[in-house]
Design a protein that fits this description.
By secondary structure, the protein is of the alpha/beta class. The chain is about 30% helix and about 10% strand.
Amino acid sequence: MATDKQSKEELQKTLNCVDLFAGAGGFSLAARRAGLEIRLAVESNKHAVETYRNNLCKASKRPIVLAGDIRLMDPVAAYSKAYKQEESCDLLLGGPPCQGFSTHRLNDSGVADERNDLIHVYFAFVRAFAPSVFLMENVPGMLWDRHAETLNRFYLQGALAGYEVQEPVVIDARDFGVPQRRKRVFILGLKRGLDLGGLAWPPRPTHGSPSACAKDPSLMPWRSCAHVFAPAEPDDLNDVHMRHSEELIEAFRRTPLNGGSRRESGRLLACHVDHDGHKDVYGRMDPSQPAPTMTTACINPSKGRFVHPTQHHGITARQAARIQTFPEDFTFSGGLMAAGVQIGNAVPVELGEQLIRYLTPLLRRARGEEKAAAPAGEPETVPA
């Protein structure tokens, strides 16, 4: 409880956050939309850094952007750049590169991937910044048995840093109004002494399948991706797609509209003869459904169902960005391939915003501004 004027003013300050492995800034933009001030962002990819600065460093309160390998950075020095001595960090966000955990990695090929250890670098920053709450995002593959040792070390480091780390939850973006099937793991950590206080984690979905909506009328139907194929602005530099060979264009012409796959296209390469997987490659998107997961290769039809529903080419970077719920005026630097990587790595903006808004009462309670919510099913006591 505030006891003097200074502490009351401190409580009234805007909530703040730090974004590690920030990429193009999907999580940061989500936080800003949720009303938080971004103090610091860390990113190593030069094109993503340029994108971040072009889009998120135009506000009056600009975040500090540290460009480079996070493993070579001093977390304490980074904290000093972003915060005054009397200030504190409310929320630390981050999605360490997930390729080592990808479900596309065969057998145990991702177990020794050095990128997996970046989630432990995360904790060096957690210890230095001491946020009230941290929220980490990664791919479901990190929960596979072969990565158990890495995950266990993550939980141990969380405990040693003074955090109660919640069980990992898998959230599908389409269940929260994002026009895309995208399952990702989110791990929530609370500074020891802070508890959820009746706040259920994860939040309840807002959207669902036809069968789910029939059972629960409060749910809205999954959003289709039809709207993302509307024409872009004439001067949109990200309204570009891959240039394809005539052979590939002919294959797209043979592919049924709003669907199909490599089999219908007739494009069966030697590697497909004895391999029946990856049937979606060279397939068209179905605009009546949520889009497939936007990966770092989302603009390449040879990597998934990334062909335009009716036109004979892959989707554009702008269309992929719309699927990830980036606004129209958010531009990506570095060219088409670089844009695809940035878009595929991002947290969908609208999903991130919903999660952060949901956690806002918890962040304010950590500051002493709000009391805990009554547990589900229990009435809140009101003074007589």
